[in-house]
Succinate dehydrogenase iron-sulfur subunit (Candidatus Fervidibacter japonicus), 239 residues
Amino acid sequence: MQVQVRILRFDPEKDGQPYWQEFRVDADPSDRVLDLLHTIRDEHDGTLAFRRSCGHGICGSDGMVINGKNRLACKTLVKDLKQPITLEPLRGFRVIKDLVVDMEPFFAKYRRVMPYLINDEPPPEKERLQSPEERERYDDTTKCILCACCTTGCPVFWVNSEFLGPAAFVAAHRFVFDSRDRAAIERLQILAEYGGVFNCHMAFNCVDACPRGINVTKAILELRQAILGGAVSSSPERG
Ligand code: SF4
Ligand code: SF4
Ligand code: FES
């Protein structure tokens, strides 16, 4: 079949502003959007820029706006999309070129919640043990691939530059509820401040956008409950 693809192109080194470019591509209905991008770059325009790595929904590098929704190019099939298929870079980040955006502001907020195990106690002779039930407590939030589809689809992210965003909350949840970690209070303190979990309006865009099916709002609610349970004081209002 022939597929009509419209891509929002922009090369800051030579373009004054972004513009739409249309391609007609031979494809199978079972092809992924990532396959279309490869065909376009290999057969139509070698200057097209996009990110990919794993090609199988694991690395999180090909998040983009596909027909108006945040999705992974490698997990979205041609047969599930109306034509013309429109492809835009994730919104809210500086465009480096075409579909490639500068993710550093996203990762800076991710780092704010200390997304790594913290435990200064002397390690046991073997590993730090955990029961299956304790592991299950944060299983859902271990699935995040940092694609930024949730954060860049969040209405609060659009209006509040200090909002940490759902991906950072998911990362925090993964460690706050890990029985081996000892820095939950510090993380919850950060999440209780302005820009943290109390600034979320529960619009559920993040749940819809997540290609890993993570229940992001459940994680946010559990973090709020942990704060309200008295672990730390909260100050979600500015000033
Ligand atoms: S539920 Fe909260 S974090 Fe998720 S999209 Fe809505 S406002 Fe953003
Ligand atoms: S929570 Fe889901 S949408 Fe958000 S960064 Fe992680 S995998 Fe992507
Ligand atoms: S290429 Fe890795 S998630 Fe799509």
User: Anything to note?
Assistant: Residues 2-101 form a domain with the Ubiquitin-like (UB roll) fold (CATH 3.10.20.30). The two ends are 58 Å apart (CA to CA). Residues 144-150, 166-167, 170, 209-210, 212, 214, 216 surround iron/sulfur cluster (ligand 2) (CB under 6 Å). DSSP finds eight helices and seven strands in the chain.
